[in-house]
Amino acid sequence: MIADLAGIREAARCPPSLSSEGRTGCRLNSSGWSRRFGRFCNCTTSFLCITAGSLLAMFSPLLLKWLIDGIIPQRGMGLLLVAVALIFLGHQGRVALTSLGSYIMLSASQKWASPLE
């Protein structure tokens, strides 16, 4: 009975290519502290991407203020094109960062849920 449990533990810990006879106690990198650290990194990266995307959402109103108060009264066409390009890039950056953060969190949750299947 105890030998059967040890064999089950060994099979669960090692893939079939590593659990050949004579090799006992092998551990993969995906177990223990490295797996928890990977979860922490995924959550932190996702949080930072979503936070940076949210901060970029505050970029457009500041650019619009600059556009209305400074560029339009001076009739500066060069600065107008720069402001429009910055507004566009700020919006696209916000969408890209929040999407990347959501994708990282989705892939991390799928990796965490796959052993439960």
Structure characterization notes:
- By secondary structure, the chain is mainly α.
- The protein folds into two domains: 1-31, no CATH class; 32-116.
- The chain contains four helices and no strands.
- Helix 2 packs antiparallel against helix 4 (77-113) and helix 3 runs antiparallel to helix 4.
- The longest helix has 37 residues, at 77-113.
- The radius of gyration is 26 Å and the shape is rod-shaped.
- The two termini are 26 Å apart.
Could you outline the blueprint of secondary structure elements for this entry?
Layout: H1 2-13, H2 33-57, H3 59-74, H4 77-113
Question: Brief overview, please?
Answer:
This protein is an all-alpha fold and 117 residues long.
Count the E strands.
Answer: 0
Radius of gyration: 26 Å
Count the DSSP helices: 4
Silhouette = rod-shaped
The helix-strand sequence is: HHHH
Average pLDDT rating: 77
Please give the largest β-sheet.
none
Q: Separation of termini? A: 26 Å
Structural class: mainly alpha
Residue stretches low in confidence (pLDDT < 50, at least 5 long) are 8-14, 18-29
Structurally, the number of domains stands at 2
Task: Please describe the structure with a list of short key phrases separated by commas or semicolons.
single chain; 117 residues; mainly alpha; 2 domains; rod-shaped
